[in-house]
């Protein structure tokens, strides 16, 4: 019967294998978007709060258009967060869009709403500011990763 033990002989390792550089590059590509994965949790929580803010702050009856707006924007942020956790390498291009979403959330009470009160303004300002900052962080991580990849390829 053949010897099928998995013990390595002394001096035998993978460093001399011809596919080692390719395996290292593939492993680096797979882990490349992991920094953005860490941002998925906070982005999801901001999206969840944005979606639920009309009911938490109680402006569903006074600002129905803004309530619908915040629900849609919150769901969109939550979907982005899920994308960051499931396909981080493919979602990095959407991180600057979060910055635009944050700015839009800040100005939305005056554009979408009608005569917003201080609570609505503060809630959207905080949600928009956090979204903008998280978008900047995700975009920064994506740019740092792309620079590292360019440096590695050269």
Automatic annotation (TrEMBL):
Classification via InterPro entries: SPW
Keyword terms, alphabetized: Membrane, Transmembrane, Transmembrane helix
UniProt xrefs under Pfam families: SPW
Lipid metabolism in keyword set: no
Compositional bias segments (type: Basic and acidic residues): 1-11
Chain residue ranges for the region called Disordered: 1-20
Lipid biosynthesis among keywords: no
Transmembrane segments: 36-57, 69-87, 94-113, 119-142
Origin superkingdom: Bacteria
SPW repeat-containing integral membrane domain boundaries: 43-136
Protein name (database record): SPW repeat-containing integral membrane domain-containing protein
